[in-house]
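Handoff note, outgoing to incoming analyst
You'll be picking up this chain. Sequence as last confirmed:
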Amino acid sequence: MTDAAELRRRTAELLAAHPPAGTDRLDFLKARFDAGLAWVHYPEGLGGLGAPRSLQAVVDAELEAAGAPDNDPRRIGIGLGMAAPTILQYGTEEQKRRFLRPLWTGEEVWCQLFSEPGAGSDLAALGTRAVREDGGDWVVDGQKVWTSSAHVARWAILIARTDPDVPKHRGITYFVCDMTDPGVEVRPLRQITGEAEFNEVFLTGVRIPDAHRLGEVGDGWRVAQTTLNNERVAIGGMRLPREGGMIGPAARTWRERPELRTHDLHQRLLKLWVEAEVSRLTAERLRQQLVAGQPGPEGAGMKLAFARLNQEISGLEVELLGEEGLLYDDWTMRRPEHVDFTGREAGYRYLRSKGNSIEGGTTEVLLNIVAERVLGLPTEPRTDKDVAWKDLAR
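Most recent structure output, in case you need it:
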């Protein structure tokens, strides 16, 4: 049984063999993965030691104290938070060994090809087609949208329709798509912030070997639920220190600019500060529950709280700053390599937070998930449940 003392010993051995000050960053990350200290709850040989998930913090603290480099988790968040747990649960041994190591070290960035122009909130209605040729490769044609990091990604997790003759949830298959394929075209989507961290992706005759399929043919919706549940936890349940996230800049402005204060703003800031702290502690409890297995629908509640708080806090900060809050520092078109919810100044934070209630599942969809799958309330009537996808009105 691997305990905290054993992990500290292994971490000390890693640091002795690969001193951070004199070791290339990528070489250190590879050595950390091979030592089983990347994500300790993963199996041996796949970056872990089969240890309790809660012990990851022991390793992280030791490495941080030693000045060891991290793997830039914001840049590779989709790979870490969504692709990796799905590959671990549904991938073959060959797939796990091929993809997990360069995913964790950041050598290969991942993106997520799920949403489509006509299938966002109703994701199961997606129309991107994958047709198999004589029992061999799959040929994929379609369009995806709101794809973060597609412009820097090497691989994508992709769901496509492989059987239009069955109801929409049953005719979907899950693939790993090579973003360097000549049939993949990535176009930027400029956002209200001026940046283009999102993209639209056009797939034309993209060939995917059957060896890059995750799960069984037609079982893609079940596989996708693993991805989506992990996505909500990755967005709404991220580990933060006190006053981490959006509440930090607002509280800092309040402390540093006493001339801006009013009684009403003070009361509102106190309320949001308490709610942010409650959300942070709830996220910590949720992560502890994950020790027992994969995340469930409870992550939807965290994602809901994350979006609401970000929007309310950033709005309060803009109001606190008065005329200054209406300024915007730079509208230059950029294609950033990672999402930064709290970077730059107050105007950016306010505008960027508007997307929080859309990305990772819209607020309306997540409310349904909480109502039906967490609280056990009656489900909404679904007239398309037993209708073949090809017969749905579009």
